[in-house]
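yo, Amino acid transporter is done. seq:
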Amino acid sequence: MFGATSVGVGAIVGGGILALAGVAFATTGPSAILAFGLNGVIAVLTALSFAEMASKFPESGGTYTFSRKVLSVESAFTVGWVVWFASIVAAVLYAIGFGSFATLLLSELYATQGSVPHWLEESWSVLAVALATTVGIGAMMTFRSSGGGAWINVAKVAVFTVLIVGGFWALTGQPASKTTQELRPFLASGWGGLVQAMGYSFIALQGFDLIAAVGGEVREPTKNIPRAMLLSLVIALLIYLPLLFVLTTVGTDESQSIRELAASDPEAVVALAARHYLGTSGYWLVLIAAVLSMFSALQANLFAASRIALAMSRDNTLPTALSRIAAGSGSPWVSVLVTTGLVCLLIQLLPDVAAAGAASSLIFLVTFAIAHWLAILVRQRSVSVPPPFRVPAYPVVPVIGGLACLALAIFQGIAVPEAGIIAVMWIAIGGVLFLSLFARRARLTDVSNMATNPELSLLRGNSPLVLVPIANPNNARAMIALADTLVPAALGRVLVQTVVVAPDDWDPRVNHRPSAQLHAVMTEVLHASASLGVRCETLTTVSAEPLEEIARAAKLHQCRSVLLGLSEITPEARDTPLEGLLGQLSCDVVVLRAPKDWQLDQSEQILVPVGGRGGHDYLLTRLLSSLSREQQRQVKFLRVIPTDTLRADQKRIRKELDRTTRVNAGRVCEREVVLSNDPIKTIADRAGDAGLVILGAQRLGPRRKLFGDFTRKVAMESNCPVIIISRRG
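structure:
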């Protein structure tokens, strides 16, 4: 908890109040104290929503991770992309702030000795110090997994404590009338000025969210993340509010008020006020506090930004190279270096640092409002596994907090229009990169994650339905088991359909055969459902055309998948009724051909022959992830090529197979390229040792799907169970 709190304190305490106290005082006068207090209330409300989600999802990534669990992969990328940018820009601001205060401190030190080196007076000295410090922190983070900076936090808190204690000591020697006079008029610009000051200064309390961004590295995260967030905010408010009070009451003489002092020099108001009641030592203390605060905030934002990039790379929404971890330290060194490099680049390139900072503030406020909304969705949808930490007074806290953050974001967008323009431009750049480089792999990873962790479907408000038409009693157990694997009954719905095949003028009292067949099927369905623990629903209809009835039911119930049983595949037949049904269904279709009494849990090996072209990637990824969710299975991707294939082509094909394997099944699976002029026999021989073969249906057009010659021949030659998949559309 101490380390996690250190990240929050490092990001919040110091930099914000030193940079924004002057703006707040100039806008609203003494009521800047109230503005920071009200912002503190909003920040605490926001931290409570963050804490609930962080306890539910104790992983690195912060708001991006929460979005990935609840929203679509495209929405999650957008949130992660802008939060990463906001953290990087915040790091840029603190790096430049550190450079400014560090050079000022050095100049003051040299001035006491009589002369100031000329390089300290050059404009490039601030950027040079900022770049050197950023590179140094980044290099340090590549060798250690923690953010560090605990001693700096202790030091700056101690310095601020001295400033506060000194202020109250000066207050005791001041007449009460003078103190009262300095607090008047309290609302110097009315309630409108107070709201403006809140909008300008809220970002001074940003930083507690960085704890969630590094949540994957916190011990006992379900307890320590909520505590660290709230504790870091409490520490910040215990420093900010008393400090603002003493600056207001003893920071000026009778010739001017704190508002007038702030209006004349907003950036130096804290230093000037401290010098008034503590003398020169107060001025030096503020400089020291500024240097320590900027350094720790830079360190915290670099640390958090690198973890956001790490979380995104693991989901393939950023290049996977960013997820490389150093063997010794456990640090995501590539992510750290890339983030550090971007910060250094922006330090030199940003033409308008103030506008970029306003864009960072705007993004944080919008994502805070989104976080409140996500907290409501998570609470509503986490029925089976509620978050360990729960927001009190739900839903009042997230509703009020979300509206407040949204209102401040709107104010920020109106006050600084350039902030909105920068944010939109960055989103546009991200959209182009996502669609051109990351979309396919990111979506496949998302499909795999949802299949591996079915709770994600509930968190996204989905209740997927799989339709399972059963006509053969011998297939009932296998079909229901596979359906429950595709869509667990606890999180989705398994709808078993039985069609009584009978003419339109059927009389059950005369012709008992359809009723007897229905009874046999339903008996096996009930036995299989009870023995497997799958509480499936049943649908029974009467039709002379069973396949058309299946298509009608699938469309009527908006099924995500249809699971069909198959007894035989003939070598010559084309456009069979079953293949005609494939063309009518707009959802994913899985066709199972299995021997009598086959059980899904017996198939520990899965063979996936590939021909070099995709087409079923999303369905294949979902199927493989579902099959491996509760039982460890060996998956092998097999490619058969002619014996006369050139070596260069063999090398290219192996790379293609490796790429296909990573995209569809991750890295934990086998892949094999076999040289053979008889691919059907080769695959059949390999299938003899496998427990299950997965093949793809051939797609000739939007409404024409066939098993295809290759799939047909492999299925005929293989004795083991075969699954044929057909993607939606």
